[in-house]
């Protein structure tokens, strides 16, 4: 992540205003997931826990409190996603859902670029099957 801050050092979490921003991002993301038949089946009917886990993870990753690790231990994203068949199509659908959510939230351009770069890398890393 190559974000240059003017003045005091701060995290992406701080720059975006804290937890509320990430919780809203996650709400928009899961609204997209619910409508996408390519990936909806990968999630439980009740999205309450996935929303909490995703928000807590993103908050921690982008410089906020370590609530995710405090609750769940090391993220181990690839291991946690291993039970699900994730191919290029699922990866692309996930990325489209997250990109759309980010566009709604409209973070500053440097942060948007860093987030898209991270999500692209992470989504690709989750691929565990050829479809």
List the main descriptive attributes of the protein structure presented here.
131 residues; 62% helix; mainly alpha; Globin-like; globular
Q: How many extended strands?
A: 0
Q: Judging from the principal axes of the Cα atoms, what is the shape? A: globular
Mean pLDDT comes to: 94
Distance between the termini: 31 Å
Question: What is the number of helices?
Answer: 7
CATH class: Mainly Alpha
| Overall structural domain count | 1
Largest sheet: none
What do these coordinates show?
The protein has helices at residues 12-15, 19-35, 48-61, 67-72, 77-81, 88-105, 109-125. The chain is mainly alpha-helical and 131 residues long. The chain has a single domain, classed as Globin-like. The protein is globular. 21% of the residues are buried.
Topology, element by element:
Elements: H1 12-15, H2 19-35, H3 48-61, H4 67-72, H5 77-81, H6 88-105, H7 109-125
A few lines on this structure:
The chain contains seven helices and no strands. Helix 2 crosses helix 3 (48-61), helix 2 crosses helix 6 (88-105) and helix 6 runs antiparallel to helix 7 (109-125). It is mainly α and 131 residues long.
């Amino acid at each position: 992540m190559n974000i240059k801050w003017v003045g005091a050092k701060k995290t992406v979490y701080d720059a975006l205003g804290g937890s509320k921003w990430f919780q809203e991002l996650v709400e928009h993301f899961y609204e997209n997931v619910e409508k996408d038949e390519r990936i909806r089946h990968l999630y439980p009917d009740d999205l309450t826990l996935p929303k909490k886990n995703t928000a807590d993870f993103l908050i921690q990753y982008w410089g906020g409190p370590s609530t995710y690790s405090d609750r769940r231990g090391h993220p181990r994203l690839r291991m946690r996603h291993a039970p699900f068949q994730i191919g290029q199509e699922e990866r692309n659908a996930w990325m489209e859902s997250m990109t759309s959510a980010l566009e709604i939230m409209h973070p500053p351009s440097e942060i948007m670029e860093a987030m898209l770069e991270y999500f692209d890398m992470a989504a690709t890393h989750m691929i565990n099957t050829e479809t």
